[in-house]
Specification:
Elements (H helix, E strand, L loop, with lengths): L5 E6 L6 H10 L4 E5 L2 H15 L4 E4 L4 E2 L6 E5 L11 E4 L11 H10 L5 E6 L4 H7 L4 E4 L3
Parallel strand pairs: 1-7, 1-8, 2-5, 2-6, 3-5, 6-7
Antiparallel strand pairs: 3-4
Length: 147
């Protein structure tokens, strides 16, 4: 990647490969963090990345589970448990439309406004977020995932 800081909103319906795309992008970087909405989804993504890269470089941080090897390069977390200020190359937040959730929305909104990868940031979610993201994230690019 060049020295640019790319922020992309990958929007589309459920089951269009947005999370899979984010995992591929993250593994193309030296370091990365991905925030997911559910503990079970975080565990599934963690297991997938461990199978590809090995357990010594992958961390899992949720409200109930914490696996943090000393040389962790890739962090798989629930959105609420995402470490802040790590300076990772890549950062992604899945299900960004949860910004509108009355109980958890403040955390997702904070990540939308403040969480960035040094080289690339992805916000994954429903097309309904396009207007809000365009208004709140200067310079954001949009990618649509179709069924």
């Amino acid at each position: 990647m060049s020295g640019e800081k790319r922020v992309v909103a990958v929007l589309g319906p459920t089951n269009t490969g947005k999370t899979h795309y984010a995992i591929e992008r993250m593994l193309g970087h030296r370091t990365g963090v991905i925030g997911l909405p559910l503990r079970l989804l975080a565990r599934e993504v963690y297991d997938k990345i461990v199978a590809l890269r090995g357990p010594s470089v992958v961390a899992l941080v949720t409200g109930e589970e914490r696996i943090t090897p000393p040389r962790a390069k890739y962090w798989v977390c629930t959105v609420e448990a995402m470490p802040e200020g790590m300076g990772c190359d890549f950062l992604a937040v899945d299900e960004i439309q949860l910004c509108a959730d009355p109980e958890r929305g403040h955390v997702f909104t904070d990540r939308l406004l403040n969480a960035r990868g040094l080289h690339e940031t992805l916000f994954l979610g429903a097309e309904t977020m396009r207007g809000a993201i365009a208004a709140l994230v200067p310079g954001v690019q949009f990618m649509h995932r179709a069924r």
